[in-house]
Amino acid sequence: MDRRLTIGSIAAVLVILCVSAASATEALQAVLPLSVPFACLNCHLTGTPTAANASLNDFGRAFLDNGSVWNRYLASLDSDGDGCTNGAELGDVDGNGQPDGSVTQESSNPGAAGDCSASTIDASTWGELKAMFTGR
Length: 136
Ligand SMILES: [Ca+2]
Ligand SMILES: [Ca+2]
Hints:
- The protein is built from five helices and no strands.
- It has helices at residues 2-29, 58-65, 72-76, 86-90, 123-134.
- The protein has one domain (2-134).
- The protein starts with a helix and ends with a helix.
- By secondary structure, the chain is mainly α.
- It binds calcium ion (CA) (2 copies).
- One calcium ion is lined by residues 80, 82, 84, 89, 108-110, 112-113, 115-116.
């Protein structure tokens, strides 16, 4: 009976840890300007992170190091080193938290190298263009 209780307790703890890891990931996704279609894979090496397996990719570490805040600084970085800034990959080049223009999905994953084509427009130019249309 003690053994069943112990196994049950361990299972309950694992479920709680898994749920808390998923909840944290979902809450942090809401901080990003867009998180579709990559969702958890924006920051994690697995699409289904758990407390036992929530390893971060390069963008996930940069996001964490930035206090889990999305801003102009984080947008200007190229965390995965593929030639596209995090902002370009996440659809918010100037990092003001608003998706650019009519963008509704990420163009590529900020934590996976080799999945983008480098933009020729820089963040400040895009920010000026965006301000013309949004007044921000
Ligand atoms: Ca990149
Ligand atoms: Ca990328």
